[in-house]
What does this fold into?
Amino acid sequence: NNEDSYTQSIAISIYRTLSSQYLADKDIALARQKLGKALEISPDNPRLLSDLVSLEIIEENYDEASKLASQIEAILPDNTIANYLRGQIYAAQKQWPQAINQLELAWKSRPNDATAALPNFCLASAMSLSAKYWLDKVL
It folds into this structure.
């Protein structure tokens, strides 16, 4: 019923907020635990799964992050978030051509601010050649 749905929505929001706070405090274990609680309530929630991809990237669990991106793609086949997440996974591994390829796929389907962040990420990572490549190729 609507009350249960509302209660679940609030619980998910609280767990996600706690997870974000623990992540900001660099307590990955507690961030993962709170996110896990939210996923128990809503296991196919793309936003929660995206948060989990970020945690997997931080912990350098790239294979698991990639599996989660595929899971999100199955849930949202017409959305480009999976390409964007794969771009993040490749960027974290400094696999710039693959990262750019995935971000281009997302960009071509639906240009957005998140995808445009890669050149800044490259520059912040002292990867100015990668940023220049991205800018020359895409813009």
Residues 44-138 form a domain with the Serine Threonine Protein Phosphatase 5, Tetratricopeptide repeat fold (CATH 1.25.40.10). The mean pLDDT is 86. Residues 2-24 form the longest helix (23 residues). The helical segments are 2-24, 28-41, 46-58, 62-75, 81-92, 96-109, 113-124, 128-138.
